[in-house]
Design a protein that fits this description.
The chain is mostly beta strands. The chain contains no helices and 42 strands.
Length: 616
């Protein structure tokens, strides 16, 4: 177990073969072992990190909350981490590896829900196969066992599942996904878009595993003849928003087509109204003709910035001609009922350069989140940046137009990790005098979770996924060459980054957000030592250590995988070290034959094993 000050949990793996210039031995990183070799149970095996972290709530009904993080490696996977009452975050489950398959940098999102309505929560995420759209995988809590979500998906949605109904391949490389009970029937639905840019609402009929099937609840081409493929391109995200403040939310859809917005109205069980494209206000490209072809790349946030009960839509601008990385806002009112409410006049940029709150003259934002962290009834919109302006809160001052940036305050809620981390530091030397030092690429927030209160103390919390966290900082020294009038690279040095942390957990304070101090538990912290003596006759001692209170089993197997002896059967043991004697007998009480045996420590969804030899 490793104490993390200032942060928790998702950890970038380090390079195990360090260059000769590395001046700190890279063996102290999470998921590494003292030999410098990887633990076989570690989740992240490269430096690509976690694109998304999702707050899942209590998935398995044990009164402990879980986070889920994405992982591009091993064909694309997700990992579940459980936050216990003793302020520890433990890796408790990982989805199956896909050997020999490129993940195509997926999954980019992960969500949880109950699609079949049986009360067992599901983990839902997309996968590609190389560059090809592939499948949506659905893992389900098995109903028994601690964080037992199975070893294979309980249900799968192939990308071409509805091809016979005229729906093209679903896109499985989208940046964000949405799972919610859109129609209020007690079952969650999944929104997907296809290569033709249509938006579809998918439900599940029946219960899985078993006789379940996907159904097209919204967007069936036989019913909806004017889906968004008729008027826009590149669907990006959909969310429920109560834009009129009348407790009748609509589904707001955003497209990468000059930040185009439109809506879908839920009308009861498995029923949705798509707009009439002949009516003014059904769709609006709010940055066309002004700021260029923008989109909210990491999605948008639904926030009631003035506390009037009517939701606004906030998104970080990306891809256009001007005000890139500014915060745009769509403002609605109580009169904006129905679907024909979208208009460029309702859009404005309320924070064009939020990084100046941290003293920067230029900058960029990617992640976006929201919550009433100071408890004043108005929702702050959080922008995820980098050093000096890592999290900037944009808050409405309480009066004036919601679309005027002068009516907002930009405040740095968190200025980033210290000491600062950079990918490259370039030092320029001119005749013995350092004339410039250039710092390049620092960790940035890619996505936020939704706001939550894990400990019920009334203080909101939020977690953020980080990217661009490298195993080391490369320091490059350049010296002026008068003969060529250029700077020549003279030396390159790599300095180990001991803080390869991909997720940070924050809690609201009176002045902003503070980092929560947690202990991080990985499978490597569970120890099954080599038995002693070994070889042995007639008995041997097994020693193991548990980093937390845990339900475990300790069993002996022969080399064919047959169970020989159960020493501990699914018992709950307190944190600590233990010894257990095996007297060389089977469960039936018979003496076992000479040969090799395997001792296996089972803890949750993971195991540790050792090989032993009985000699007579």
């Amino acid at each position: 177990m490793k104490k993390l000050y200032l942060s928790v949990a998702f950890v970038l793996a380090f390079f195990f073969t360090a260059e000769a210039q590395l001046n700190v031995n890279a063996t102290g990183n999470l998921f590494g072992v003292g030999t410098g070799l990887p633990d076989s149970l570690r989740p992240y095996s490269t430096d690509k990190g976690a694109r998304t972290v999702h707050y899942a709530g209590d998935l398995d009904g044990d009164s402990k909350i879980e986070f889920i993080g994405t992982d591009y490696t091993n064909g694309g996977r997700v990992h579940v981490w459980e936050l216990s009452a003793s302020n520890t975050l433990e890796l408790v489950w990982s989805s199956a590896r896909r050997s020999g398959i490129s993940s195509g940098s997926t999954p980019r999102w992960v969500r949880t829900g109950d699609l079949d309505g049986d009360g067992n929560k599901e983990i839902i995420f997309p996968l590609t196969s190389g560059t090809a759209d592939f499948e949506i995988h659905v893992y389900e809590y098995q109903g028994l066992g601690d964080n037992n979500y199975g070893t294979e998906p309980a249900f799968i949605l192939p990308a071409n599942y509805f091809a016979a109904q005229g729906v093209g391949n679903f896109r499985t490389n989208r940046e964000v996904g949405t799972v919610a009970d859109f129609d209020g029937d007690g079952l969650d639905e999944l929104i997907m878009s296809n290569r033709d840019h249509g938006v579809y609402i998918l439900g599940v009929f029946g219960s899985f595993p078993g006789f379940a099937s996907w159904q097209l609840e919204g967007g069936d081409p036989a019913v909806v003849t004017a889906n968004s493929k008729v008027f826009s391109v590149s669907h990006w995200e959909s969310q429920l928003a109560d834009v009129a403040g009348n407790d009748k939310p609509i589904i707001v859809n955003m497209h990468w087509n000059f930040m185009g917005f439109w809506g879908i109205k839920p009308r009861g069980t498995d029923s949705y109204s798509y707009p009439d494209t002949g009516v003014v206000g059904f769709y609006s490209e709010v940055t066309r003709g002004t700021l260029g072809d923008h989109v909210g790349y990491m999605g948008f946030t639904v926030a009631d910035v003035d506390g009037d009960g009517s939701d606004e839509i906030g998104a970080v601008l990306y891809g256009g001609d001007s005000l890139t990385y500014g915060l745009g806002l769509l403002n609605f009112s109580a009169q904006d009922t129905g679907l024909y409410i979208f208009d460029p006049s309702k859009f404005g940029v309320i924070s064009p350069n939020g990084w100046t709150a941290g003293g920067a003259t230029a900058g960029s934002f990617w992640g976006i989140g929201s919550g009433d962290f100071n408890g004043n009834g108005k929702t702050e919109i959080l922008l995820g940046g980098t050093n000096e302006y890592n999290i900037v809160a944009v808050e409405y001052n309480g009066s004036g137009s919601l679309l005027d940036p002068a009516n907002y305050t930009n405040t740095v809620y968190y200025d980033g990790q210290k000491p600062r981390i950079w990918a490259f530091v370039d030092i320029y030397d001119s005749v013995g005098t350092i004339v410039d030092t250039v710092f390049t690429e620092s960790p940035f927030i890619s996505k936020f979770t939704k706001a939550f209160d894990s400990d019920g103390d009334g203080a909101l919390e939020i977690a953020a996924a980080y990217q661009s966290i490298y195993d080391s900082t490369t320091i490059r020294n350049y010296v002026w060459n008068a003969g060529t009038s250029t700077y020549d690279l003279t030396t390159t040095t790599k300095v180990n980054n001991e803080r390869k942390i991909n997720l940070i957990h924050f809690e609201a304070t009176s002045t902003g957000l503070e980092l929560k101090e947690l202990d991080f538990i990985s499978p490597d912290d569970y120890v099954l030592a080599q038995n002693f003596p070994n070889p042995f006759n007639p008995s041997t001692m097994l020693r193991f250590s548990l980093p937390v209170d845990k339900q475990i089993s300790l069993k002996i197997y022969d080399m064919l995988g047959n169970e020989v002896k159960t020493l501990i059967n699914n018992e709950f043991l307190a944190k600590g070290s233990y010894e257990m004697n095996w007297d060389g007998t089977s469960n039936a009480g018979a003496k076992v034959a000479s040969g090799n045996y395997v001792a296996e420590l089972q803890f949750g969804n993971f195991t540790k094993t050792i090989k032993m030899q009985m000699l007579k």
